[in-house]
Amino acid sequence: MTRAPGLAADIAAAGHELGVHGWDHPYLLLRSPAATKDAIKRAWDTIADAAGCTPRVYRPPYGVLTTAAFVAARGLGMTTVLWTCWGREWAEGATPESVISVLRARLTGGATVLLHDSGAVTPGNPRVAFGALPMLLDECAERGLRVGTVAEHGIVE
Question: Does the predicted TM-score (pTM) go above 0.70?
Fold first, then answer.
């Protein structure tokens, strides 16, 4: 957001949901409550300023939710969201086919799917995740599942 602040506004204007993952990507069990709160608030402020609207969801790094993170997110009006299934596109040797194979096992109505769109975890994951998306959408269509935001699925308060 700090490098391309206009992008956040464009994403929000296109109807996408904005959320906070944190300012950085620490393992929260090793971070103090004050540092956790500061990092979440800093990310929330940056996204809100850039997008012109406030983020409504928070997903903790690594899916590890601490009391401090929950309280900080709640204090900012965010709902904490974890995932139901993940594609493991970050694993060494992952391919779009391996991602969809992993997802198929846990893909159900109301599922929240975790895929990463950056190379921060492993250099190949955006290519692998993006390559799996058409297959994921086809799988959802075959199962009669509607793809939507967490708000559309009634998760956000």
Answer: yes
